Each structure stands twice: as C-alpha cells, then as structure tokens.
Amino acid sequence: MWLLNTSTAELRFFHSPSGICYAILSHVWGEHEQTFQELQALRSSFHSPDGTPRSRASFKIRDCCMYAEKAGYAWVWIDTCCIDKTSSAELSEAINSMYVWYARADVCYALLDDVPGSENPVAHKSCFRHARWWTRGWTLQELIAPRTLVFVSHDWRFLGTKHSLASVVEEISGVDRAVLVHSRALDDISVARRMSWAASRVTTREEDRAYSLMGIFGVTMPTIYGEGQLAFTRLQDEILKLTPDQSIFAWGPVLESYPYAFHGFAADLDEPHHRASHNHTSQPEMQTMLAPSPAEFAAAGRIRPITTLELSLRLGVDLSNPHYQHTSYGIRTRLPLLTDSHAPGELPSLTAPTKVSLAALACEHEDGSLVLLFLRKKDSAHDEYYVGDFVDVGDGGALFTRAYYRIAFLAPSTPSGLSHVDVQDVYVHTHAHPALRLRLPQRLPQGKLTDGLERVVYAFVFPEWVLARLRAAGFVPTSLPPSPNSRPGSRPRSPPRTDADGGLTLEMPVLPGLDVSAIFRLARVATVAFRHRDARRPGFTVVLGLGCICQLAQNRRGFDAFWLDVVRAPVVGAAGAGAGGSAGQSGGVKAALGRAGLHQRWSGALGASGTCTRQHLGHTSMEFGGADGRVRLTVTPWGDAPSGPVARYNYVVDLELLGPEEVAKVGEGEPAPVEQLSLLRRVVEVWMTLGRSE
C-alpha cells in the first residue's frame, strides 16, 4: 500500500501495513480530488519554499497531513491519492484490502465537510445527524472497521469519537452499538441486518454498492467495473459460500403475521435507517432468489438466522444443512415446503394457489415469527420456481389491494393448519422473468407519458336518468359499511361524487407509466352500493376495477382492462316487487356488502386452472344474478380530455334491474329492455357529451 508522509506529503510504498503506525482518512469525495499521478508530479514539477510537495497539495490532503502530524503520526492513507487507479490490478487489490487497511489503522479521521466546528452532534436537528457522510456506501465499512474513529468538522475541529457518540451514531446509521465499539463480532450479525445498514446508502458507480460491502461480509472477489448490477449478485454468491445464514433470501415486500394480518412492512420502514423504498425495483426483479441491490433489505433488519436443527424441531421434520448449486435453471437447493390444510377461504388466498408453495427458511423475525418464502412454480416445469406472488389484501384505507409479496412472517400463534411439510429439491431462478407492464385503457396520445402527464383519471358516470330508474324501483346509492378489520386512523375511502345534474360519478385515479408491481400495490377499485328503502329488502354493490392478474398472461390494452362485478342477494325489479328477499336474508346481505365480504369474493379471481373468472368489460351488456332477478350493466366510453397534467377518460354506466319475469323473457329470446332502449340511450349519451364539453 502507498502511504503519505505527513510532514512532506510524499508517497512511499509498503508491501504490508503490519508494524506501521498510520492514520487513515474517511471522507466524501468532491468534484476535484487530487490523484496519485498529480501528487507524484508535484515533487518533480514544483519547488515549494519548504522543499516538499505538502504546501502545494490540495487543502484536504494538506490539512489531513497536518492534523495527523500534530497527533504524532508519520504516515497517513487517503484513498484519493494513495491508489494508482490507472492500474486495474492495483485498484482491485486496494478495494479488496480496504476493510483490513481501515481496521489496522491506529486512528481514522472522519471528515464531515458539511458540518461546522461549533456543532453539537447530539442536538436533535444538528448538521452532524444530516451530514452527507452518513449517506455514502463506502463510509459504512469506514465507520465499522477502525477501532478508533474521530469525527472532525469541515475546519478540522474535533467533534467526538464513535465511542463517545455511540448512541447517536447507532441512531443515525442503524449499526448496532456493540458492533461500533467492537464488543460484538460482525459474524454474529445476520446477513439481512448487515445488508439493511447499506439499504439507504448510495455510491457513484453501481458496482461500488457491492464492492463497498465486501469487507463487511469477509468476501474477496475481482472487481469488474462495467458489470453493473451483476456485481451485487456475485457478492451474494460469495456470501453463500461462507455462511449458512438464509436471511440473505429474506428481502423485498413482506406479508406480516401470515395468515392473520395484512399490514405489510411499514413498521420497519418507520426507522430512519430503513427509509429505502421498493418502488425502485420492478416486480420481475423481485422474482429472483438473490436481491438486485442492498435497498431491498430495508425492511429486513430484524431478521436473524436460526440453526437447521431448530428449524427441524419447529417443523417436525429431519433437515440437513443447506447446500447451493448454481445451474442454468437457477440455484438448486433443498427446502421444506409447507402445505395449507385449512378450508378454502379461511386464509388469505393467493392468486394461483395451485402453483404457489410456502418454503420455510432457517431464519426468523425477532418476535419469533418464522420466515416463509413464496415460491411460484414455473409453467410447464416440475421443480423450477420464481419467488413471490400477488396476494389479495384489504384494510380500512383501501377497499381492495392486490400486492406483490416475496416473504411472509408466520406468526408464532398460528394454529397447526400449515402442518404438512414436504422437503424437496427445487430450482429457484436467479434471472428475472421478462418485464411485464400494465397497459392502461385508452392509449394516451403520443408523448403524453413523458410530456408533463401527472395522472390519469377514469370517471364512471351513472346519469341522472339511471338513478331515477333505480329510485322508482326503491333503490338509492349509499356508502359501504366499514371493514371490521380496519386499522384505527386509516385513511377513509373517497365516496362517489354527486354531479350538478343529479348524476353520480366514480373516479379512479392512476399514475401513468407504472409497472405491474406498482399498480397492484395501490387500490384501483371504484364501488357504489345501492340499498332499498325497505330495510327488509336486499341491496347490491357495483364494483369497477382496473388491474387483474390475468394481464400477466393476456395482452389487455384497451377497454377490456377494466373488470366489473356485482355483489348482491336476489334483486327484485319493479315488475316483480314483493316477490324477492325476506328479512331473514338481510343479515347475509349486509355482510356481503362489507369490505371483508368483497375481499373474500375477489380473492378467488383465478380458477383452479389459472384462468380469470372476472368479467372484463366489453361493448355488450353484462348481467349478474340468477333466475330470481338480475342486474344488467352496460358501460360505454363517451369522450375524454387528455390534455394538460391530468388525462381524463369518461364512461357512462347504464344499470337496469331485471325481475324474474324479464329474465324468463330474455331466456326465451325476446329482446331485453336494454336492447329496446339502446338507440335512446345513445342519443342521451351524445347529448350529455356535448353538454359536458361546453
């Protein structure tokens, strides 16, 4: 390694740092840092008054040398000028040795160049807490490795040490106090937690996100700038060779307290060092066994490994130590797969339960919950899997959400429903499935997705004459009852908007350009419930949704991207008044109208064969119900306003109630009322369109 003489700033090469007492600098690079070649040139090209290059060196190098010299150190190492970066071999050796160099240094000076010397680091809103130094990838190992680390301000005034400020440093960085003061070995910390320390840190080069972590995991590997994200994959491959810790697979979106809770991983993300978001990673990248970047471990800081023996005892099966083999089909390993023995509907349904398995990993959350991995079987493959699946969830802030999850926490209090365990050899893919994007209905004009468009709004209008027809039959619009599982303080759902002309509008806002994982994390369902004036008569709820799992297999680009549903008990039309529901049915109807009831209905959107069971919109009428009464709906596009930051697309919804007599007539081939009135409705729609455009 090259070291700087603190009195002259001259470079000298040492074959090994052993036996040398030297200081080392940790800092954030600026725009113009003096390089190895530039510092060497000072000695031969310039003659300073004192005969040394130090007076002509950069302010940072000169000040560091003077600070170390005053502390009694003859040598100092600074990464900007002590590595010959024109030599790829020397650069690779330095990167692989850097953690050791910082660990062997007698003292490390952490220069916080955006913190004033008069700073009180402990203050709640201090510049110390918000220094750029805490956000950089390389400074993580520079914080952990040295036994003695001194923080200095931009004018090289003493701020404190990592021992004296250990509590503050732990709060800012997320690194355990015991690790900072070297009372606990890094190997005692789970892989997932160590990764979480780097989740919100950034580097200039993508490859450095991996290279800056090699020392923290005790890994050495060639550095290949230009390989991009592959560097982090190689890092994880090397980690797997050194540790049996399966928390390395426990990254990405988490379904907490499976099978009871549906709150995601927000609790972990509330912590300052867990602010990274999964919005930067597409759903295809989350299907792989290995993470694309440290950011995916943002919510994994509380996961710790357990032994194979402990996992065997908890599952009641014999397990051997894990081995991993890299093949062209992915990572080959042996995992215990859990089978759900509960009755259908008792647990939150997966979108394709016949294709999804739950694999138990040898790790747990700190509350004792076992970590499960969702494995989705590849089509036409016996033992090949991708990771993760879409899961139907619901809460008080959104009526329906289909979210993508990789792992779940199996609550310790879970009954023995997940009792059957089958240990199998599986191949889990390490390369992402081709990217899938959700095609929004009504293609936007060319350039709109990149030309200032902020939002797309789909508006479904129930005209006044449709509501008047329903009122004549005794039905009026109302709000859905809240879910019994709604979380306290959750955001209330926006009700339908009443128009000035007496109609009713449901609005469905969507952000443009979202991939499948992003669109399914948001609630994209618009609903309106109708109750009968007679409380003994059942009501019904109209549900309009955008986004369906079948879009992963079918190319729905237009009108048919929407789907429609009606949740109802037998509905009696005006012609058959008094022939329908009874008071005894009222309780069941109220339950069906609740969020929980709707959730159960939508959670089974795919049949056993994987085909979609939803009714997607078309240009014909759609009916819901049975022989004792039906609800007929026709949805027709009628104008749009795609200009400006918001593109708005409007649809007219015609709703008719068919009693038993009308249902029988339609079955015998007679034209239905909607067909008889189609011309009149089209005329009214044109009139409404012209009126709205004015």
| Cα end-to-end separation | 77 Å
Structural class: alpha+beta
Helix content class? 10-25%
How many strand elements? 29
Number of helical elements = 18
Strand content: 25-35%
Uncertain spans: 260-283, 341-353, 394-401, 434-440, 442-450, 480-494, 514-523, 570-610, 666-686
Q: Major sheet: size, sense and barrel closure?
A: 7 strands, mixed
Mean pLDDT: 75
Query: Strand order, biggest sheet?
Result: 2-1-4-3-5-6-7
Rg (CA only): 32 Å
The total tally of domains equals 3
What overall geometry do the principal axes of the alpha carbons give?
elongated
Search tags:
elongated; 694 residues; 7-stranded mixed beta sheet; 22% helix; 29 strands; 3 domains; 25% strand; 6-stranded mixed beta sheet; alpha+beta
Notes on the structure:
This protein is of the alpha+beta class and 694 residues long. It folds into 3 domains: 2-184, no CATH class; 246-428, no CATH class; 455-618 and 636-651, no CATH class. The strands form 5 sheets. A 7-stranded mixed beta sheet has the order 2-1-4-3-5-6-7, sandwiched between helices. A 6-stranded mixed beta sheet has the order 21-22-19-29-28-27. A 5-stranded mixed β-barrel has the order 11-12-13-14-18. The chain is elongated, with a radius of gyration of 32 Å. About 21% of the residues have low confidence.
Short description:
With 694 residues, the protein is of the alpha+beta class. It is built from 18 helices and 29 strands.
